[in-house]
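Run Monocarboxylate transporter 12 through structure prediction, thanks.
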Amino acid sequence: PALRTGPPDGGWGWMIVAGCFLVTICTRAVTRCISIFFVEFQAYFGQDYARTAWTHSIVDCATMLCAPLGSLISNHISCQVGIMLGGLLASTGLILSSFATSLEHLYLSLGVLTGLGFALCYSPAIAMVGKYFNKRKALAYGIAMSGSGIGTFILAPVVQLLIEQFSWRGALLILGGFVLNLCVCGALMRPIALKEDHKTAPEFLEQDFVPKDQKRDLKRMSVCSPLIKVWSHECLCYCSWKEYDFLLMPGFMVLAVSVLFMAYGCSPLFVYLVPYALSVGVSHQQAAFLMSILGVIDIIGNITFGWLTDRRCLKKHRHFCYLFAVGMDGLCCLFLPVLQNFPLLVPFSFTFGYFDGAYVTLIPVVTADVVGTSSLSSALGVVYFLHAIPYLVSPPVAGWLVDTTGSYTASFLLCGFSMIFSSTLLWFARLAKKIKRTHLQSLTNDTGTKQHIWTNGAMAYSVTAELDQKDVECLAVGTSSYGHR
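Sure, done. The structure for Monocarboxylate transporter 12 is below.
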C-alpha cells in the first residue's frame, strides 16, 4: 500500500476498532470468566486454592509471555494471519479442556494452548488501532478496550447459566466455539503503511546486498521487508535492533518496572472475587452478578477516560491519569476485606471496575507516548510480556495465603499495596524527571547569557561560554587566518 503521511483517524480505522473490540471480548473477557469455573474445578478435582489457581494464572501468563511472539508474527508476516492462527489455537485449547481428567490436563490445554492463542491475537490487534488513530487515539482505544468490560458483563451470567445447564465441560465446549470468532476479527485487520514506519536500510546494505533493480522498491518498503529477498545476517541484526532499541530508554524502563507491580496487584482479584463473595454468604448468581457489574462499569471507565484524556487540558497529563487510576484500584483492594455482604460489594465492583477500565485503556496510550507509534507493536509486546510472571505467580501466592491464614485479608492487602507502589514509583520518576529538567534549564539560562566576543576589524565572532577547548582553538585559528588574509 502507498505510504500515508499520518494516521487517517477514521475511515476503515473504525472497523479496526470494531475488530479489536471483538478481540478483547474473546480474549480478556473469556479469561476473566474462567474465575467462575474456579469453584467447579476445586470441587471436581478436590484440590486446594493454590493448586486450582494455577489454571487461571497460566492462561494469563501464557497470554502475556507470548505477546512478543504475536508482535513478531504481526510485524514480519501479517497481523491477519497471526490473529486467525491465534483464534484456532485458543478454540482448540478450550475444546480440549472440556475433556480434562486432571488439573495438569487443564494446565496444558486451558492454560498453555489457549493462552498462546490469545497472545497471538491481543497485542497485534491493540497495536493496529494505534496505527489508524492519532488525534482520537485515546477515545479509539477506550472503545476498543471496552470489549473486555462488555464481554465480562454479558459472559459472566451466561457462563454461570451454561455451567448450571451443561456442567463445566459443556460450558468450556461452547466457549471454544465462541472464541472461533477471533478468525473473523483477524480478517478485518487491513494493514496500513505510514511514513513514520518507513526506515531506510543502512548504506552498506543498499550498496552491497540489495540489487539495483530492488533499490527503488527498498525506498517504499520497511527495512524488514527485504529480509525475505536478501536474508543477510547484517540486515537481520539491524532490523532486530531498530525494533527493540526503545528498551534502553529510561522512561520505558521505569514504566516496565511499574507494570510488574501493577500486574501483580490486579490479577488475584479477578480470580478470587467470586470465591470471596461466596465465602461471606453471597449466592452464586449474586457473585456472578458482581463480575457483571465490574464488567459494565469497566466499559464506562474505558470510554470516559479515553474521551477525557483526549481533551486538550488532559492530553499532556495522560501519564498522571494512568498512575491515578492504578493507585485508586490499589486503595479499593485495601478496603475489600471489610466488605462482607452483597450491598457493600456492589460499590466495590463499581469503583474497582471503573478505574480498572481507565488504566487498561491508557496502557497502550502511555506506551505510545514513551516509545512512539513506529515501535508501538514491539513495545506493547514487551509490556504485555512483563505481565506474564506476575500473572503466573500472584494467584497461587494469594491462594497459598488463603490456605495458610484461612482468610482473604492478607491476599487483598498485598494486592493493594503492590498497585499503590506501582503508582508511587511512576509519580516519583516523573517528579525526578521534572526536577532534572528544571535544573538543566536554569543552568542553560545562567550560562547562555554569558558570551565572549572576538573582533578583528569590522568582523565579530560571538560564542557562548559553553564552548569546549577544541572549539576555542578552532575559533582562534580561524581568526588568525582571517587576519593573514
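Residues 1-194 form a domain with the Growth Hormone; Chain: A; fold (CATH 1.20.1250.20).
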